[in-house]
Amino acid sequence: MSDTAGLTQLMDEIVVCRACPRLVEWREKVAVEKRAAFAGETYWGRPVPSFGDPEARVLVVGLAPAAHGANRTGRMFTGDRSGEWLFASMHRTGFANQPTSVHRDDGLQLSGAWIAAPVRCAPPGNKPTIAERDTCFPYLVRELGLLSDVRVLIALGGFAWDAGLRAASAVGEPVPRPKPRFGHGTDVDLGRFTMIGCYHVSQQNTFTGRLTEDMLDSVFLRARTLAGL
Fold this sequence. Notes:
By secondary structure, the protein is of the alpha/beta class. The chain has one domain: Uracil-DNA Glycosylase, subunit E (3-Layer(aba) Sandwich), CATH 3.40.470. It is built from 8 helices and 6 strands, in the order H-H-E-E-H-H-E-H-E-H-E-E-H-H. The chain has helices at residues 4-14, 21-33, 70-73, 81-92, 130-146, 158-170, 203-206, 213-227; strands at 51-52, 58-61, 113-116, 152-156, 187-190, 193-198. The protein is globular, with a radius of gyration of 16 Å.
């Protein structure tokens, strides 16, 4: 059984973190200046906690919160185009009770899945520095240790792929050498886990057709099979 109390405590620690000055300044600046379309909303403007089913067998790993998505709504992949793609697919493949994710109190519930990110604050240009990545990394390691039922990691993009390899190693699982290269649909055996690579659900990939709905659904359906769901 996963440590639900431990996960709650970890999320409470994450949302008050101020360890990276550049990220703190940026997330709070965005929350004040806002985007015109959301001018009447109160932005979250803090580190974004993970969410999902504490008994998850599948862990979805992204990159970082979007400035006007999760940094606004306070929930991973919520309120932006990336989330529209992700949760629509998770709904089609049986991981989510609804296909949309508008705000953190919209009734969305995940079953068998948990969503996290290696970096918990929105970074300028969606590009955290190496130091910011490494400062935030222990949260993911602790999370992976607390989610004892997880058997499959879905890495959304190369950044998440590298984070997944490092986190698996940090919790004592074997990582092949040389380091496995990221690729869409590529999977790697990490002892307790199997990690599947998936192109990120960013507009750069979905608008250009690099990532299609069928490609995304295939990854989640394979994850279901590997996780025994």
